[in-house]
Amino acid sequence: MAFVVKDRVKETTTTTGTGTVTLLGAATGFQSFSVIGNGNTTYYVISDPIANVWEVGLGTVTSGSPNTLSRDTVLSNSSGTTSKITLAGNTSNVWCDYPAGKAVIKAADDSVTVPEIVASNGLL
User: Fold this and answer.
1) Cα–Cα distances in angstroms (integers) from residue 16 to residues 11, 13, 96, 102, 116, in the given order
2) What phi-psi label fits residue 101: left (phi over 0), alpha (psi between -120 and 50 degrees) or beta?
3) For residue 120, what pLDDT is reported?
4) What is the 3-state secondary structure (H, E, C) of the chain?
5) How many CB atoms lie within 10 A of CB 63?
6) Which residue(s) pair with 3 in the sheet?
7) Pairwise CA distance, residues 123 & 62, whole Å
8) Closest among 50, 51, 47, 71 to 59, alpha carbons compared
9) How far is the CA of 80 from the CAs of 4, 8, 54, 85, 101, in angstroms?
C-alpha cells in the first residue's frame, strides 16, 4: 500500500505491551487514523504521559471496529533505542508526525538539509 502523512491526526489508546495499538477514536479537534487509509503506512508517535515514555516509528493502519496501528519500525524512543516501548495500559496519545530524522528542512537562509540517504546497497 501507500505511505501517507496527514495533518491533525490524533487518537488515544489504553493498549498494553509492545504489540499493535488499538485506537479509541479521534481526540477532540483532530481526525482519526482512518484518514491515512486501510493498509497504508505512516509515521506515528505514542506518548504515555503517566509512565513518561514515548516512541516514534513507522506503522500500518488497519481499519476496523476498532481501528488499529501496527508498530512496524521504531525510529527512536524515550530510552534512546529503537525498541518498542512497553505500554502499561495508561491512556496514551497516538498521533501522526513527521520525524525530524526523516525531514527535509529549508532554513531561513534558503539552505536545505536532507537526512542521510542510503542507497539500496547500503552505501552513501
Assistant:
1) 16, 9, 20, 28, 34
2) alpha
3) 52
4) CCECCCCCEEEEECCEECCCEECCCECCCCECHHHHCCCCEEEEEEEECCCCEEEEEEEEEECCCCCEECCCEEEEECCCCCCCCCEECCCEEEEECCCHHHCCEECCCCCEECCCCCCCCCCC
5) 15
6) 41
7) 34
8) 71
9) 26, 26, 10, 11, 14
Handedness of CA 7, 11, 15, 16 (dihedral sign): positive
Q: For residue 74, what pLDDT band results from cuts at 50, 70 and 90?
A: very high
Residue 43, pLDDT > 60, answer yes
What confidence tier does 103 reach under pLDDT thresholds 50, 70, 90? confident
Cell, residue 103: 525531514
Q: Number of C-alpha atoms within 13 angstroms, CB side, residue 117?
A: 5
Is the bond leading into 66 cis (omega within 30 degrees of zero)? Answer: yes
The grid cell for 81 is 533505542
Bridge partners of residue 68, in order along the sequence: 22, 62
Residue 118: which pLDDT band, with cuts at 50, 70 and 90? low
